[in-house]
Amino acid sequence: MLDNLLLGIQIVLAVIGGYQLFLTFFGWYRRKATKQHEPQKSFAVLVAAHNEEQVVGALIENLKNLDYPKELYDIFVICDNCTDKTAQIAKNMGVYAMERHNAKLRGKGYAIEWMLKELWKMPRQYDAVVMFDADNLVGTDYLRHMNNDLCNGSRVIQAYLDTKNPNDSWITAAYAITYWYCNRLWQLPRVNLGLANFLGGTGMCFESSLLKEIGWGATSLVEDLEFTMRCVQRGVYPHFNYDAKVFDEKPLTFKASARQRLRWMQGHFDVARRYFFPLFWQGLKEGNWAKLDTAVYAINVYTLFIGSILTVFLWIDVALPGVRTFTSMYDYSPFFFTMLTILTYAQFPLALVIEKAPWKTYKYLLLFPIFLLSWWPITFYAFFTQNNKQWSHTQHTRVIRLEEVQSKQVS
Q1: Listed residue (335, 398, 341) closest to 372, CA to CA
Q2: Cβ distance 59 to 135 under 8 Å?
Q3: CATH code where residue 391 lies
Q4: Using H for helix, E for strand and C for coil, what is the string for 211-224?
Q5: Of 51, 80, 325, 365, which sees the most CB atoms within 10 A?
Q6: Cα(395)–Cα(368) distance, rounded to whole angstroms?
Q7: Do strands 204-207 and 128-133 pair parallel, antiparallel, or not at all (unpaired)?
Q8: How far is residue 205's CA from residue 127's CA, in Å, rounded to a whole number?
Q9: How far apart are CA 406 and CA 411, in angstroms?
Q10: Residue 382 in contact with residue 308, Cβ under 8 Å?
């Protein structure tokens, strides 16, 4: 009985994995660029910051030099519970420093919700709101791409996320590899298939009328995923813009990385628990592939949790002396499932090739499996601590200018 149950779980997990692998083939090509428009949309550019005095200046300088009419956008730095010079730096550089002090409601989601309420009270109203983290750098044509997408009918847009420090350590390289993979083989396939894309926490653009209509309401540890779910439920599908580039700073050490990823997975469990079944049943009733696909994405955290436990369980069964107790799918077709495993990992070097990643990054593929396996204990621990809503800050110290990042990409 238990053997049949475990085999059934393996089949379900294999179907989900096969589905994800199938989608990646639609990321091998890019459609022609969308229709271009003259700048016409106005933007409120929000920068979420908590004690970011070391890096916020570089981003403000970057944003003030975007290739977009200066009268069509304003920059607001959300100085959330800051105890350093973040607000003073913003004021000195001539942008709005929006200071918020609320020790009880901490975290980016709450800060954004507060900022939007303040924004709606202001005399000037904007066509759209874009959001960045203080450690980011932004491609100079970012707002032009957002303007085009908004004019073409998109209401929620996610930019291409890249890392500004991919070669600082094997950890930052692992993040970079993951980003290249997700951009090309997760996000782009969904653009090509007309499905909903997923928000990535920064480089996001929202039509103001949509935010006023449904409110922000995303205050979990993964506010980006939560808002994605809320949009898709309402039939609003976030769109991915491959050409709008945002560069994010990644933690240098495994410890800092584990802490950040733990927060992500705790939040992901919370969102999956609240949104999977409603969205899944809605997708079934409507025969809506986009909603079903988003529901499957929401449940991925449980897929990883169950899959990792089951894999370790089967490994132990094989390692123990004597006759094996449980059946593995590999027993039925060793060649097929071995090839499936190889193809699953091969997606990562393939993404590097398609995305023309710097050659020095390829050497980190040797350590990348360790990074992937480290998600297992992190997810396991997150499952049992998912009720923890305490936000943790990732310290950013890497002061890099956009020109440096772009020059390294070419080299």
Answers
A1: 341
A2: yes
A3: 3.90.550.10
A4: HHHHCCCCCCCCHH
A5: 80
A6: 23
A7: antiparallel
A8: 10
A9: 9
A10: no
Domain interval for residue 239? 1-411
Contact 23, 133 (CB under 8 A): no
Decide the pairing of beta strands 137-138 and 73-80: unpaired
208 touches 127 (CB < 8 A)? yes
DSSP annotation of 206 reads: E
3-class DSSP assignment, residue 132: strand
CB–CB of 225/267 below 8 Å?
yes
CB 351 within 8 A of CB 184: yes
Give me the count of residues in the chain.
411
How many angstroms separate the Cα of 136 from the Cα of each of 66, 112, 144, 245, 313?
14, 17, 18, 10, 41
Closest CA to 190 of 339, 19, 35: 19
Residue-wise pLDDT for 139-184, tens only, equals 999 999 999 999 999 999 999 999 988 889 999 999 999 999 999 9
pTM metric for this prediction:
0.90
Over 80: is that where the pLDDT of 409 sits?
A: no
CA–CA gap between residue 189 and residue 30 (Å, rounded): 9
Q: Mind giving me the DSSP string for 224-284? A: HHHHHHHHHHTT---EEEEEEEEEE---SSHHHHHHHHHHHHHHHHHHHHHHHHHHHHHHH
- Describe the strand order of the beta sheet including 43-49 as a list of residue ranges: 96-100, 73-80, 43-49, 128-133, 204-207, 156-163, 239-248, 137-138
Q: Which stretch of DSSP H or E encloses residue 234?
A: none
Query: What torsion do the CA atoms of 409, 405, 191, 348 make, to the nearest 10 degrees?
Result: 50
Q: What is the DSSP string of 141-190?
A: THHHHHHHHHHTT-SEEEEEEEES-TTSSHHHHHHHHHHHHHIIIIIHHH
* Nearest C-alpha neighbor of 53 from the set 101, 89, 77, 26: 89
Q: Residue holding tokens 């847009």? A: 157
Looking at the structure of the chain, the number of domains it has is 1
Type of residue numbered 262: L
Lookup: tokens for 347: 């997606």
Burial (CB count within 10 angstroms: exposed 0-12, middle 13-18, buried 19+), residue 347: middle
Helix (H, G, I), strand (E, B) or coil at 245: strand
